[in-house]
Amino acid sequence: MDKKVRLGVIGTGHMGQYHVNVAKQLSDAELIGIFDANLERATQIAEKHKTKAFPTVEELLKETDAIVIAAPTFLHHKIAKQALTEKKHVLVEKPISQTVEEAKELVALAKQNNLILQVGHVERFNGAVLELGKIAEHPLLIESRRIAPYNSRITDVGVVLDMMIHDIDIVLNLVKSEVTKVKAVGSSIVSNHEDVASVVLTFANGCVASLNASRASQAKIRTLNISQKDSYVFLDFTNQEIELHRQASSTTQLGTGEIKYRQESIVEKIFVHKDNPLKQEHEHFVKCIKGESEPMVKGDSDIKTLEVAYKILEEIHGKK
To answer: What pLDDT, on a 0 to 100 scale, did the predictor assign at position 155?
Structure first.
C-alpha cells in the first residue's frame, strides 16, 4: 500500500480525543472522520480537528481502510467484529473485549481476512519499555506499582482491566513462561468494581511477579522493578527512565550505640528515546497495515493477557 491509510476513529470520549489528535499528526495516514454516539460532541471534536463527524459507524467504515476503537469496553467486540467483517484493519483500546471467547473470535476473524488487529497496550510503546527487553533477559522477581487518583470517566471496568492489564501484558512478554499460579486480592473503594488489587503470579520457570494497582490513591506512581541474578532494573513509566544497578555490595557496621548499614552499587542510566507513546502506537499500526513492520503485540499474546486478567478477577470476586 503506497497511498496514505484512510483512518477513522470511533468514540470521542477522554481517550478517543487523544486518538483523534494523534491521528491528525500521522504522515502516512489521513484522518477521514470520526463517529460518536453523542453527535453533538462528535461535531465539536470534528470542527476542532478539521475533520468530518459521520452519523453512523457504517458510513464511516465505507470511507476508511482502518479504524481506531475508543468506545466503552462493552462495545469493543461488536464494533471490531463489524469492522473486521467489512475488511477494515482495527486498533482497539484495551481490553480487547469483555470475554476471552470474544477475543478469540476477533483474532480468528482478523487472521481469516488477513487484517491487522492491534490492541491498545500503549505502554509497549513507552521508550523505557522498548529498551527494557534488551536488559531484562532472565527476571527472577518483578514488582510493579500502578496507582493513581480516581477518575470518574472509567465506570465499566475495574482497576484490573483499566490499569493493571498494562503490567500483565508487559510481564508476560518479559518472562515468556507459562503462569502456573495466580493469587489475588482486591476491594471496591469508590466504584462498583475493584479499585485496588494486589496480585502474585508464579511462572513455570520460577519467576515471581507482584503486581499492585490502585485507582483510589492521592498520588500517581507507575514503576516496575526487576531483580535478576547480576542486576536490578528500575523503570519509571511516567518519566520514561531506566536505572540499571550492578555489582551491589552491602556491609553492616556496629558503632558506639548504633548500627550503620552501607550499600554500594554501580548505577547506569539507560538512554531512552522519548516520544509520545500513543503516536508511536499509531505509527506502528499504520506501518503494519502498509507491510513495513510486523505487529509488536500479536493476537495470541492479547488472548493470554486477557486470560490472566480474568483469572485475577475470578480470584478477587469469585467464579460466576
So the answer is: 72
